[in-house]
Amino acid sequence: MSQKNVIKKNINHNKGWARDLFSDVVIVENNGTKFLFLSGVSSEDPEATDLHSVTILGENDFRKQTQIAFRKIKSILAAHGATLADVVRMTGYVTDRNNMYTYFEVQGEELEGAPRPPHTFLEVSSLAVPEMLVEIEVTAIIDSSES
């Protein structure tokens, strides 16, 4: 593969606290194919300006936080011409594995009939903000000419 055909862009949709820490999305384009790599998405308020003032939407409700995270993912994907049907890899991080069935139930609802992508589901001791209960990473692939 020739490097001159590969274009890489780092993009931030995040307006706040994480903007200077990492990119929300990396897009790699090569020969008509666009790969979208989303960083972990959670239910944090996108308007928060620093880590110490982050508010977690959905309070302590795992289902609500998961729904918010998936809706944010859908919005980010849509901004780049993709949908959840274009996702080829997903990783879910949760702070309590007892929420596994709720997680996959919400995932199924949000996929709206799209096939479930390959998935890794991990329990972690904590996430970036103590009130976060779930964080989801996705990778999607689309034809560049379609976006």
UniProtKB/TrEMBL annotation:
Transmembrane segments: none annotated. This is RidA family protein. It comes from Cytobacillus stercorigallinarum. SUPFAM superfamilies: YjgF-like (SSF55298). InterPro entries: RutC-like_sf, YjgF/YER057c/UK114.
